[in-house]
Amino acid sequence: MKRGACVPGCARRAETAEREAGKPWVRQSLGRGFGQRFRQGKCLPVLGLLLLAWCLSAQLSAQKLYAPDRVGQGRILQSFIYPVRNSDSVEFTLLNSQGKVVARSRGFLLNYERGTLVKKLDGRMKDWVTVGLLGITSTQESGNYILRATIAKKKSRSQLLERPIYIRKHEFPGETIKVSAKMNSVLNPKDPDLIARQRTQSNELWAILKNDNPEYLFYNGALLRPLEDGQGRTSSAYGYVRKYVYPGGKTVNSVHKGYDIAAAQGIHILASGDGLVVMAKDRIVTGKTVMIAVLPGIFLKYQHMSVISVTEGSSVKRGDLIGEVGRTGFATGNHVHTELWVSARRVDPSLYFNEPLIDTNRIISMIAAN
Ligand SMILES: [Zn+2]
Fold first, then answer.
1. End of a domain among 20, 44, 61?
2. Most exposed residue of 43, 80, 218, 239, measured as fewest CB within 10 angstroms of its CB?
3. For residue 221, how far is its CA from the centre of ligand 1 (angstroms)?
4. What is the CA(276)–ligand 1 centre distance, in A?
């Protein structure tokens, strides 16, 4: 950087020379002084530095926010910034037409120097990509939104990139569920101890969901259906609008934010992707529950197990046994309820049984096309 100071130095010396010669100081005089030094070859290193600085600034100004124009309800909005520096930190937000933030997530570097993502990208891209994944729930209103990326830089002002996104409507069916007295006591406990325990469990869950550790880069491929092929049947799809009918006739509408497969007790439940077990415990409403972190801010959750086969803090691979089907907690029968959490919102896990959580080939082709 010290040598970079030569430019104003050259200019100042040229100005001083002109002034000392009694000539009026005009911009031209700078050009003549510089030109003379240029002809003498004295400013060539400076030109090299200028060219380098220009290249760097051109590269940064070319930073672009990539995202699809449309995304359906119940899906992951995949977006990314390219190129970025590894010191840049990016926050992705989705704003509605009133400018209200409806989803938020911290971006993470895709070609981080470990994990499976690097192997896919290695050798094909020289720069860094920051990915932002936002969960679009089934109840997010369809219409026009703005995706905003705020890039905070270490040595310069932060930068905003925006693009419009349209959320497509998807029709979700409905069903009615009769709530038994036993289920009612789980859903609406009167015991103060039970209420306090539920609150503690809810706080524990949210502490996990807010952990978007950028080093959680375990898996970005398609999810495995949690029961082996041919086992179980879909008993309730994601997004169902459920009307609960309570004893006494009271009704409450609730949206099913998971994907249910009914199967006999004891059928093996398999990990849908590689990851870190961040929860393995018996909970009041969700019963025996396992949560797996697969990416920063992205979690898989399996509920109502009869047996948990993993421990908190252990690593699992896609297809590993994590538990057995049961009906613990608030359940109307033996089934596994699977959730996919993205930016603290639930999306449809079954949509990702056949497509990857992050489509790295698409990222590479989108970058190559620009
Ligand atoms: Zn369910």
1. 61
2. 43
3. 23
4. 23
Q: Helix %, strand %, coil % for the chain, to 5?
A: 25, 35, 40
Q: How many domains does the chain have?
A: 3
* Same-domain check for residues 191 and 340: yes
The gap between the terminal CA atoms of the chain, to the nearest Å, is 32
Instruction: For ligand 1, an ion, list residues with CB under 5 A.
Output: 258, 260, 337
Q: What angle do the packed helices 6-20 and 44-61 form, to 10 degrees?
A: 130
- Cα 58 to ligand 1 centre (Å): 50
Do 264 and 317 have their domain in common? Answer: yes
Asked whether residue 281 falls in the same domain as residue 239, the answer is yes
- Is residue 165 domain-shared with residue 217, that is, in the same domain? no
Q: How far is the centre of ligand 1, averaged over its atoms, from the C-alpha of 255 (Å)?
A: 10
* Residue 128 shares a structural domain with residue 195: no
How many whole angstroms from 286 Cα to the centroid of ligand 1?
9
pLDDT in tens, 6-43: 333 333 333 333 333 333 222 222 334 444 554 555 55
Please state the pTM of the whole predicted model.
0.78
**347 C-alpha vs ligand 1 centroid, how far in Å?**
13
**Residue 189 and residue 274 in one domain:** yes
Q: Identify residue 176 by its one-letter amino acid code.
A: T
In tens, the pLDDT along 41-100 reads 555 565 555 555 554 544 444 789 999 999 999 999 999 998 887 778 999 999 999 999
CA of 193 to the centre of ligand 1 (A): 26
Contact residues for 294 (Cβ-Cβ < 8 A; gap 6+): 216, 218, 219, 220, 273, 274, 275, 300, 357
